[in-house]
Amino acid sequence: MIDSTMQETESPLPSPHRSAGRRLSRPSRPVWRLSSGGWRPSQIGIWVMALVVLLSLAAPLVATHDPTAVDLRTGLQPPSPDHWFGTDQLGRDVWSRVVWAGRASLTVAGIVLLLSLAVGLAVGLVSGYGGGWIDNILMRVTDFFYALPQLILALALIGAVGPSRLALVAALAIGGWVTYARLARSLVLSLRQQDFVMAAQATGATHWRVLTRHLLPGTIGPVAVQLSLDAGTTILAIAALSFLGLGIQPPTPEWGAMLVEARPFLDRAPHLVLPPGLAIFLMVFGCNALGEALAEWRRPG
Question: Going by C-beta distance under 8 Å and a sequence separation of 6 or more, which residues neighbour residue 145?
Answer without folding.
Answer: 174, 175, 177, 178
